[in-house]
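pinging the channel bc i need a second pair of eyes. not urgent but kinda urgent?? the chain im working w is below, pasted from the shared doc
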Amino acid sequence: MKINKITSTIYKTDGSHEPVLLSSRNSLKTLQKLVGGRIDIIHILDFKKSMEGDTSSGNDLVINDEGLDLPINPWSQILGFNSIWEDEKFRGDIVLIEGRLP
């Protein structure tokens, strides 16, 4: 079984960020630990490309599914820029996956 490496970055509520290299074998548990609970995956697709019918590109954003009481992440607007998520205020630490999760 081939284990794929997943390039990603964690964006924290304190304004910091750092790269994270995930393994496809343990990515669920690792992502849950990084965001502090159950995860939800949001696909961030460039609005213009989506209007042109291109849904194959973009990145996945992993957020805490139960994070309503967490602080607003200051990276929200930047990570959702030029997508339907642009005005969303994500809460808690969030992980941006380069491309889509396998």
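so The two ends are 14 Å apart (CA to CA). and The mean pLDDT is 86. — does that match what u expected or am i reading it wrong
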